[in-house]
Design goal:
The protein has helices at 24-47, 56-68, 127-142, 165-171, 234-252, 290-311, 330-344, 362-368, 402-417; strands at residues 73-75, 82-87, 90-100, 149-157, 183-196, 200-202, 205-208, 210-219, 223-224, 259-268, 274-275, 278-287, 314-320, 326-328, 349-351, 371-379. The chain is elongated and about 80 Å long. The longest helix is centred in the first third of the chain and has 24 residues, at 24-47. The strands form four sheets. The protein has an eight-stranded mixed sheet, with helices on both faces. The protein has a four-stranded antiparallel sheet with strand order 10-12-8-13, covered by helices on one side. A two-stranded antiparallel ribbon has the order 7-14. It is α/β, with parallel strands linked by helices. It folds into two domains: 24-207 and 326-417, Zn peptidases (Aminopeptidase); 210-320, Alpha-Beta Plaits (2-Layer Sandwich).
């Protein structure tokens, strides 16, 4: 089975290869045999996490592992990215496989023997596992080049955690490929303890939310707390704004096209008897469609301007656009689900009932290329679903046997999408 939207095949091209050159059960077996090496790489990365767009040690490890496989590498000009190409034996399009590499600013408290050795930094979102799985997939694919009609572009990306690393890689020309080699598919695996180990969880259409940010300073007039009528107190103005934003979401936004507005930080005042001149607040907006995203932005402005005007205060509002909605291409998602069922069994492929309101900068790639992200379950059978620490917790522990499924899934999607038959 080939992926949707195949392009770049040579007219009249035929192949003596069978239509099913690789049994995916055998591929999973090979990934399981590689698991000790995948885990060893993952643990090396886990001990030395790096944050943001500049990851020199992580980049060096990835380059060394790829070159050990005989794969030439390219590194980013402005960020610590790494790319490599696995060239198939036949001409055809390009499939992008992405693994993000950066950690989070957290102090690890898992008690694992390979815990982070860097104070205040941890691979709490599992990006160390993504790198290790993609390197494992590269090994699986490098030995199967003869079955590929086209090429696999390995995308090792820094700065997913709020830094927009994917956007930097696109700006540096990630997808600027020669005619006939254009990318016609993109695939990513994201590990999660929200799901049982080894399961593959995905949905067509919006899978993760857009993430935008509110910053607001309300300016009034300071004074003595005993005589508020002589001042213009910004604190009740901000209190009204916070409550009104919650009502706005429930009254102005379609419940079937949801939004979340959460105020997470309010700062104002210095002591108990002084009315401050200013109060600052910030928060986040999460939406799963561009229509609702635009509506929420407009309504936030309306709420702030109206309440500030009613009190005679001044509101200085900034809405900062973050990652766009992560939208899985429906045809590619169906293709990935069929590959997952063939690889791991139909029971392992679980449709997600609703989007996740977290955000992901793989969304920038999916704006350019049809593709999908799948969530790989990595919650140990011994863990309770209600109490297992989740991604971004400094106590999260990923069940490492799931990494074989993730590595095999990367490779299986590539083999089926670029099938040489």
């Amino acid at each position: 089975m080939s992926g949707p939207g195949r392009t770049g095949r040579r007219p009249g091209h035929t192949s003596a290869m069978t239509t099913d050159p690789i049994a995916l059960s055998a591929l999973l077996g090979d990934a399981e045999a590689l698991l000790p090496e995948i885990v060893e790489v993952r643990r090396r990365l886990h001990r030395r996490p790096e944050i943001g767009l500049t990851l020199p040690a992580t980049q060096a490890l990835v380059v060394a592992e790829l070159e050990r496989m005989g794969l030439p590498t390219r590194v980013g000009r402005t960020v610590s990215s790494v790319t490599a190409v696995i060239e198939g034996a036949q001409p055809g399009p390009t499939l992008v496989l992405r693994g993000d590499m950066d950690g989070l600013p957290l102090q690890e408290e898992t008690g694992l023997e390979f815990s982070s050795e860097i104070p205040g930094a941890m691979h709490a979102c599992g990006h160390d596992t993504h790198v290790a799985m993609l390197l494992g997939a590269a090994r699986l694919l490098a030995s199967r080049r003869d079955w590929l009609a086209g090429r696999v572009l390995l995308m090792f990306q820094p700065g997913e955690e709020g830094f927009g690393g994917a956007r930097f890689m696109l700006e540096e020309g990630l997808l600027d490929l020669p005619a006939g080699q254009a990318a016609n598919g993109a695939f990513a695996v994201h590990i999660s303890t929200s799901y049982p180990t080894g399961t593959l969880n995905l949905r067509p259409g919006p899978e993760m939310a857009a993430a935008d940010f509110i910053r607001l300073t309300v300016r009034g007039r300071g004074g003595h707390a005993s005589a508020p009528y002589t001042a213009l107190d910004p604190i009740p103005v901000v209190a009204e704004i916070v409550l009104a934003l919650q009502a706005m979401v429930t009254r102005r936004i379609d419940v079937f096209d949801p939004a979340v507005v959460t105020i997470t930080h309010v700062r104002g005042g210095t002591t108990n008897n002084i009315i401050p001149e200013t109060v600052f607040l910030e928060g986040t907006i999460r939406t799963v469609s561009e229509k609702t995203r635009a509506s929420v932005h407009a309504n936030v402005r309306r709420v702030v301007e109206g309440i500030c005007a009613a009190h005679g205060a001044v509101g200085e509002l900034e809405i900062i656009s973050g990652y766009p909605v992560t939208i899985n291409d429906p045809a590619f998602t169906a293709f990935v689900a069929s590959v997952g069922a063939e690889l791991a069994g139909a029971e392992a492929v679980i449709p997600m009932p609703a989007p996740i309101m977290g955000a992901e900068d793989f969304s920038y790639v999916l704006q350019r290329v049809p593709g999908a992200m799948v969530f790989l379950g990595a919650r140990s059978p011994e863990e309770d679903a209600d109490t297992a620490p989740g991604n971004h917790s400094n106590r999260v522990v990923f069940h490492e046997p799931a990494l074989a499924v993730g590595a095999a899934m990367y490779a299986a999607v590539a083999l089926r999408h670029l099938a040489g038959g």
